Amino acid sequence: MTYCVDFPEPGTAVEWSLTASGVERETVAYHPRFYVRATGAGSLAEIADAIRPHPAVTAVEVEHHRPGWRHEPTPMLAVAVTTPDAVARLASTITSAGRPGEYRCFNVDLSRQFRYCVETGVDPTPNRSPRVLRLAAPPIGDAGLEPVTATTGGETRCFDADPATIARGVEALIEETEPDVLELSTGRLVPALFDAVDGALRLGREPGYTQLAAASSYESYGQVGHSPARYAVPGRAIVDAGNSFFLRETGTEGILDLVARSHKPLQEAAWASIGNVLTAIQIREALARDVLVPWRSWRAERFKTASTLAAADRGGFTFSPAVGVHEDVHELDFSSLYPNIMCTRNVSPETVCCDCHPDREDVPGLGYSICPEPGYLPDVLQPLIDDRDEYKRRIRAGEGDTEALEGAASAIKWILVSCFGYQGFSNAKFGRIECHEAINAFAREILLDAKATLERHGWRVVHGIVDSLWVTPMADREQTDLGAVAEEITDGAGIRLEYEAAYDWIAFCPRRNDDAGALTRYFGKRAGEPADETASYKRRGIEARQRSTSPFIVDAQLALIREFGRTRSPEAVCERLRTFVDRLRAGDVAPSRLAITNRVSKRVEEYSQSTTNVAALERAADLGLEKRPGQSVEYVVVDDEKAGRARVALVREDPTQYDADYYRDRLCRAAASVLAPAGVRREGIETQLADRVDGSLSAFGTGPDD
């Protein structure tokens, strides 16, 4: 089957298919298509006459397609063009004609290879495992190409010479091994290798390369992200390991599972976001029903009264955690709660608040109607839910390739995680805010009903968030078997409540500045697992789970958690903390273990405060490694008392020293997270560290202001 598609010249496409012996190449005629619908005073005939002479247009025909889920087929212009890149340019010209919204375009912003597959019916799932060559290099700066490490078939080679020799060495290895996939540590390796030589270079199955997209920064949900430039070489898929969420989270097997579901070829599935893959799956379902894909979302939110808006805008339900350390705790999770709500309650953009059943009030607390006619969204999600359950069953039973099953199950999990939030995303192709609100309303009802049932059977809920509940036996009450209670809740909700884990103990942290419970900061030890194993402890929200935390601080906090679980003694935890402080003071920590990784939110000149982040950005710029918003910078604080770039050293500079006082502060902060559930705050920890004589509990402060 075709696993990679190139577009070497207008009007043609080249399909590359994997075979048992290698690869096959086939050139076919191809003209991408998009569609135009006229509304109001718009005239399809006028648009057709205007665009026919355009050099990029090869055909203009009138066809009938559905512009939405609740629409009948409507006359539209089907416009065929010479290249995929011409689609967006022509669509922009057409939509700018007439009054705003007079002409609407469909099937415009599909990625190139995905467009080809859905338009021609090609399945891009490889029919054998692709051969992978991994190429890794240090960050590429003004100095150009540096040593490249290549790994394939279990063998590793290092190319360390002048840039031209490195590039030719990589080219020779590719010719020797004939990989199907180039997995790169950074996409910038592609232009760097080509720039290093005079003349042609062959990284693909034919010479040359194409830049598909330039690097860009963006903001999403308050976070700044960075999308690096993307490249393609003929006949091979490029996977940028630095720009592939799915490679990092699911491995190649997970990506291949998504290729089969979405029909996004391997290279595009690898760089795609979760929402992008989910949208591709929805697009396949829509096109199968002759529903076209809107270019820009124009679905306005329906009018709501103030009271309805207040009720609808509450989000999911979260119980305030009972701060402290709890013994004998059990975790229960609803299986894929939000996707199952969509399937069991028939929540879909075209069913919620339908015009055909205005008198129904199906959504609790909101009074929205839900059409009984089957929605498209459950048809999209139910196979994902069923397949993930089957993969998990096979993993538990030891059937099949465990690594492949785990990768596929993880890939589906991420799609299911995003499907709910995507309904509220303003740019979602088929999203709708009323769907988002309805799902939350059902989820709140389910969680509250579950809590009431658990308490009726003698179980106290100590925390609950989104789809998870933590319970412990009520004192002086007889408990019903938890499995039987879970079955009762399952029957009532129509969604399976699963027993997730038992904990010997679990600690819920207070917020840093008061005694209220922090919703997503907790840690605990799973029952029946070794107390000295890191994997035995679940932790969320604390420093050991934060990407920016230095490896040394992570190791220290995990050791403090183990000490706390073993002794339940704040004094013992502080004594253990002292050993890490002493190591810092003695210079007994490798600086690389103290590296801080932070994401950049602005360009260096846009910062007004002189922070360690800014100092690191200045040093990176000095080395020709300027960081763009959304990228990460790694550095070690070498002297926090200095000003400017002298405060830090980049990891790539191989620093030999560090600021022990700075990292001691970070250690104590991590220790405070461990001891806060026991009522011990930062001030008490400092007191204990300063006083080796008074080790009693009275040495500790218990409040945020002590």
TrEMBL record:
| UniProt keyword terms in alphabetical order | DNA-binding, DNA-directed DNA polymerase, Nucleotidyltransferase, Transferase
What superkingdom does the record give? Archaea
**What's its catalytic activity?**
DNA(n) + a 2'-deoxyribonucleoside 5'-triphosphate = DNA(n+1) + diphosphate
Record InterPro entries: DNA-dir_DNA_pol_B_multi_dom (IPR006134), DNA/RNA_pol_sf (IPR043502), DNA_pol_B_thumb (IPR042087), DNA_pol_palm_dom_sf (IPR023211), DNA_pol_type-B (IPR050240)
Domain DNA-directed DNA polymerase family B multifunctional residue range list: 284-676
Q: Does the keyword DNA-binding apply?
A: yes
E.C. number? 2.7.7.7
Question: What are its GO biological-process terms?
Answer: DNA-templated DNA replication
Q: Which GO terms describe its molecular function?
A: DNA binding; DNA-directed DNA polymerase activity; nucleotide binding
* Protein name, as recorded: DNA-directed DNA polymerase
Underlying gene: pol_2
